[in-house]
Amino acid sequence: MSEFGEEGFLSTEINNLTEKCHTNYKEWFELHESINRYCWGLTSRLKFHSDNRQEYITFALFLRMLGIFEGSYILIERGMVSETKVLLRTLMETLFSLRAIAKDKEEAERFYQEHDYLKYTALKKMLQANSQVIPLNGRDHSKRLAELENEVKTRKLKPSSVEDWAKKAELHDFYISAYSYFSWTVHSNIMEIGQLLNGESDDSVRKILLSPNFEEVCKYLMTGIECIVIALGSINELFHLKENDRIGEYDRSYKELYKKFIN
């Protein structure tokens, strides 16, 4: 069996720790797995119209959330807390867009049109960094940049910020609390990497340690579950699935588990 000190989170030693983690947080993992199975079963029932951007963008965002939801499960069961936080922040970001678009078809159009602005800014930065970029498919980059700039100005394209999407989704409280907290991890500031430092004080660091962390695993599983349950509510409403009872049951289940956790 390979030790953590030899192969890190890829070591086979992690398997034993993962088993213990599942035992300690059994109810949370089982709820996560149940919701995941339900979501996959639901995807086969989502019938979108190919010319309806609100439907197909919402569906695509839901699948994106489902993959991230599973990814956070895989990471947290191995004690990879920081990496889980990064995925959960992405999960929230996707949720904000999904919920806002499911509520208003005009937001779907706005979301779709942003791609030209993103291409414009990316090409502009690329040319600023290197004016000798090899033409792509024989196209003149300067000419293409001018075309995109004209599109941006003519249509007054401006991407919405994450906070904008959170407000449109009526989840701004989620943005200023959990999302902001997980953002510290994404940007690797001192508050986050400070967890790796071990010593008598900030001025006397003796060790820098990286190790699996299985404290409050349920807190991260709960965050993922809450995001998915909110997304399910939006999916249910947009596609008229009539799954209120099942989704309500999942909502009550994670809230009951959370009460146990805080008590």
Distance between the termini: 38 Å
With strands numbered from the N-terminus, the spatial order across the biggest sheet is: 1-2
- Name the shape in a single word: globular
Strand content: under 5%
Specify the biggest β-sheet: 2 strands, antiparallel
User: In total, how many domains does the architecture comprise?
Assistant: 1
Could you describe the 3D structure shown?
This protein has 263 residues and is mostly helical. The protein has one domain. The chain has 12 helices and 2 strands, in the order H-H-H-H-H-H-H-H-H-H-E-E-H-H. The protein has a two-stranded antiparallel sheet with strand order 1-2. Strand 1 and strand 2 form a beta hairpin. The longest helix has 25 residues. The two termini are 38 Å apart. The mean pLDDT is 90.
Summarize this entry quickly.
The chain has 263 residues and is mostly helical. It has 12 helices and 2 strands. A two-stranded antiparallel ribbon has the order 1-2.
